[in-house]
Amino acid sequence: MSEKHEAARTAGPWVLDAREVGHKPGASRAYSRTPPAPGGFGLDMIKVPEGEPIELELLAESVVEGVLVSGTVAADLAGECVRCLDPVTDEVEVDFRELYAYPDSATDTSTDEDEVSRVVDDHIDLEPAVRDAVLLALPSAPLCAPDCQGLCSGCGAKWAELPPEHTHETIDPRWAALRERFGGTEEEK
Fold this sequence. Notes:
18% of the residues lie in helices and 29% in strands. It is built from five helices and eight strands, in the order αβαβββββαββαα. A hairpin with a 6-residue loop joins strand 5 (66-80) and strand 6 (87-101).
């Protein structure tokens, strides 16, 4: 790995230096950071917009197995209502708690490789675990209002903007040929 690539991977607002916390169990350090959201930080209908600040208030504590990082993650959300496609804005705040295991710790034998996050070259990459915590807190079906009625299936207009008597006549397709042959119903003549 090139020196430039290594420096880019271990620097930045998403990366903590485990040496700052120390390897003595009980040592700790508080962090307050506001990294920009990377692309794809959300679901199809709602997400943290790319570049939007994500507020991290964290405490990194040295434990026997590694570094326990806990705190809160907060961000603004933007998306679309699943019923009417109007814009939706919201906020998310989640509690965050993740163990980052030291290389050659007891977790190597007691857990699968992808079961616990790892300290790599004395650095902790927060982005994957923060992304997972935020994604789990997002609504899978965001609504502009709890009572949103959505769109009329006949004309596509918002039900909230249509008069109460709005309807579309539907005819059973099995009878449509008879209707065409005999010229419609008595009300239509």
